[in-house]
Amino acid sequence: MANNYGIEGSHLFITGGAGFIGTTLALMLADDNTITLYDNLHNNALEHSPLREHPNITLVQGDILDPQALEKAMTDDVTHVIHCAAIAGVDTVVNAPLKTLQVNIQGTFNVFNAASKLKNLQRIVDFSTSEVFGQHAYNVSEFEISPTVTIGEGRWTYAISKLTGEFITHCYHVQHDMPTVTVRPFNIYGPNQVGVGAIHNFVTRAIKNEDLIIHDEGSQIRAWCYVDDFVDGVLRATVAPEAVGRSFNIGNPRSTLTTYNLAELIIRIAESSSGTTFKEMGFSDVALRIPNIQTAREVLGYEPKVELEEGLARTIAWYRIKLAAQAEGKPVPTTPVALNA
Ligand SMILES: NC(=O)c1ccc[n+]([C@@H]2O[C@H](COP(=O)([O-])OP(=O)(O)OC[C@H]3O[C@@H](n4cnc5c(N)ncnc54)[C@H](O)[C@@H]3O)[C@@H](O)[C@H]2O)c1
Q1: Looking at the domain that runs over 11-327, which CATH code has it been given?
Q2: Which of 13, 21, 100 has most ligand 1 atoms within 8 Å of its beta carbon, as the pocket-test mutant?
Q3: What is the mean pLDDT of residues 116-138?
């Protein structure tokens, strides 16, 4: 599938490339680029995917905490580094706060240090998170970061580690003149998701007609962004000359609703007989998170296209195919990405 981003013939090195977003990026780019996916396979969206056999894709099993392995894998012909590898997902983070800090901070240092030695580097993209905005984030623009976090609460190690990653990225740009850019994903969902996440959990249960487990009252408000739209934003940030040295919110402010409404919507679209069960979360949550994407619109020409009901319908369809394939012991197809239609 030809992409329209003008990076054909490039060699892209994607850390965390076996994950949800890394796999979707690889799918988009593999036909006309060389792709190295560097991942310790903590998560693995490629495990049962035919994409693993693609002739332009090499999967290197390695850890970003291993600087020698990283430098060896990042060969001199690499032109673009996309740094997705991280410990993410609130449940994982709460259970492993020290590991989260180590991987997301030390690992990011290692990736930037290895990339700083590349002769042909055209862009390095750092993945941050919308969590850097803290507990109340309504219509937040790139510059409104003043997170109020409680030291000692495990969940905030993620936001702090990712914010530190943004500082690392910016410092490499300023001190080493590296062509950096940071993207901040706002609640991404869609086919190929392997980690934790509300839509992943809800859809998986809805198609089995099991109760959907809702944290607390389900009154948390989120803006959900379909993965194809997000990947479009990432690739625009990867090529736009004006993006260098900047951070961009990438999300879909139109697809906003409460977690309870989301559960009900998924049950309806999936034509499921699931009910809903409420469970106390046991740690602090983000009450409200909606991005302002004006900077991405103006600088990158980014505009999300897939609205929530359509994105959920596509996602539910993929999860059904995945379940059926797994039951028959067949490969799980990765979906074609329809962008710029
Ligand atoms: N999905 C979202 O909604 C979302 C929101 C905000 C930020 N992000 C960020 O986007 C990036 C990608 O997220 P994703 O949803 O694809 O998650 P994911 O868990 O599917 O992908 C992350 C990948 O990183 C790999 N990894 C973890 N630790 C590693 C290590 N030490 N060395 C090498 N590989 C390692 C995992 O095996 C996994 O495949 C992450 O940086 C995440 O923090 C995602």
Answers
A1: 3.40.50.720
A2: 21
A3: 93
